[in-house]
Design goal:
- The protein is of the alpha/beta class and 310 residues long.
- The chain is 33% helix and 18% strand.
- The chain has 9 helices and 11 strands.
- The chain has a 5-stranded mixed sheet with strand order 1-11-10-2-9. The chain has a 4-stranded parallel sheet with strand order 5-4-6-7, sandwiched between helices.
- Strand 10 and strand 11 form a beta hairpin.
- It starts with a helix and ends in a 20-residue tail after the last strand.
């Protein structure tokens, strides 16, 4: 066992010993922050600054040009088909489905600027797709227009009585077309039926040509007629039943394309529209771009083969 003097001596040596110095840690050179030199762009001459401004303007113009036209303002790069070939493939896609529930649909696409006037019109196809047109006529009670509506087969006619019918059966209207005589236009505006008829596309207006002085002639024109309207640079509407023959479908396609082209010509003074593509599709089938031809590329397939029932 150590004595007391030896313990005190050992403590004294520890107290008098020189303190240890902290060793400076060396930092590797690649970890040390490098000196950042700030460089400034020279102002340049007046001509250089002008060129820079022109470049910025051109870049902005190109950027804005991308959004000027619609996205499908150029034809698709997919293969194009003749009418008989397109019908052949679409009929194959609809095998096993009820023929009455399947229709052909035509999409006419064109290049048009945004926020430009839209195409809208009414067309009577050579072979109508729908025959369930039910017309109601807003006209004064006991007038000659009311007599014309009754003899032409209108399902409902009148003024106050028709307004009450619309308000009471807002969700189950007995008609799908509504026209108004010119003399009843103030009463229609006063009735406030825009909230009911507007969302259904039934509100009569001069723009849609559903306010007329001759009820009889307008009803004759509307029976069997279809209304089309441009939406997002394209017009889409049913063009025929799946049981239509190639000749019937061809005449309907020609009639619609001719009507659209005529409307485009009449609007040339306000806006320029260019037709770029015509696409045929069916209820459950794909969309096939048409090349303007009629006969099939397969000599074994004739229009008679596509005229039989599915």
């Amino acid at each position: 066992m150590a004595t007391t003097n030896k313990c005190i001596a050992s403590l004294a040596r520890l107290t008098l010993s020189a303190p240890t110095r902290a060793i400076n840690a060396t930092i590797p050179r690649f970890l040390a922050p490098s000196i950042i030199q700030t460089r400034y762009k020279s102002a340049g001459s007046i001509a250089m600054r002008a060129r820079e401004r022109e470049k910025e303007k051109a870049k902005k113009k190109r950027r804005m040009q991308r959004f000027k036209d619609y996205k499908h303002a150029t034809p698709s790069k997919e293969e194009q088909f003749s009418l008989c070939d397109a019908m052949r493939y679409l009929r194959a896609a609809e095998v096993g489905r009820p023929p009455k529930s399947v229709t052909y649909e035509l999409s006419v696409r064109f290049r048009t600027p945004k926020n430009s006037p839209v195409l809208r019109s009414r067309i009577r196809l050579p072979y109508p797709v729908k025959n369930d047109t039910r017309i109601a006529v807003i006209c004064k009670e006991g007038s000659g227009a009311m007599q014309d509506a009754r003899t032409s087969g209108a399902v409902a006619y009148g003024e106050e009585s028709l307004f009450e019918l619309i308000k009471e059966n807002a969700n189950h209207l007995p008609f799908n077309r509504l026209i108004c005589h010119t003399d009843s236009e103030p009463a229609l505006k006063k009735a406030g039926l825009g909230r009911i008829l507007g969302p259904k596309g039934l509100m009569p207006s001069l723009k849609t040509n559903t306010i007329t002085r001759s009820v009889k002639s307008l009803m004759r024109e509307m029976v069997g007629a279809e209304v089309y309207r441009e939406r997002v640079g394209a017009i889409r509407m049913p063009i025929g039943n799946i049981q239509f023959t190639p000749k019937q479908l061809s005449e309907n396609v020609k009639a619609l394309v001719a009507s659209v082209k005529g409307n485009m010509v009449r609007m040339e003074d306000r806006v320029k529209k260019d037709l770029i593509e015509v696409v045929l599709s069916s209820t459950n089938g794909p969309g096939l771009s048409l090349n303007g031809g009629f006969n099939s590329t397969d000599e074994k397939v004739t229009p008679e083969h596509l005229s039989t029932a599915m």
